[in-house]
Design a protein that fits this description.
Layout lengths: L2 H12 L3 H20 L4 E3 L3 E8 L2 E4 L6 E4 L2 E8 L1 H9 L2
Antiparallel strand pairs: 1-2, 2-5, 3-4
Helix pairs in contact: 1-2
Length: 93
């Protein structure tokens, strides 16, 4: 499922116009992105949590040349599944 599929599903399930469903989905994603940028943690019970993890810099290697390169420290978004989602996905196999 991609963003367009999500918008279509919301519009159908809620009987909303497609444009209104798109506004809602964009608002949710924009709000979540802003929270992560501000360093906040997002927890959706039964689904999972989003947070920003900080990684220290390290010395890596260029896979083509083998040269050593310095990799700067960085912050990346991280998602951890909730217990309920994890169990539901596992049961569906």
């Amino acid at each position: 499922m991609n963003k367009s599929d999500l918008i279509a599903a919301l519009a159908k399930e809620s009987e909303l116009p497609l444009r209104k469903a798109e506004e809602i989905v964009n608002l949710v994603f924009d709000t979540m992105s802003a929270a992560l940028i501000d360093g906040d943690r997002i927890e959706i019970r039964g689904f999972g949590s989003f947070m920003v993890k900080e990684y220290e810099g390290y010395t890596g290697r260029n896979p083509k040349t083998g040269d050593r390169i310095a990799v700067n420290e960085k912050k990346l978004p991280f998602f951890k599944t909730g217990k309920e989602l994890r169990e539901n996905v596992d049961e569906e196999e």
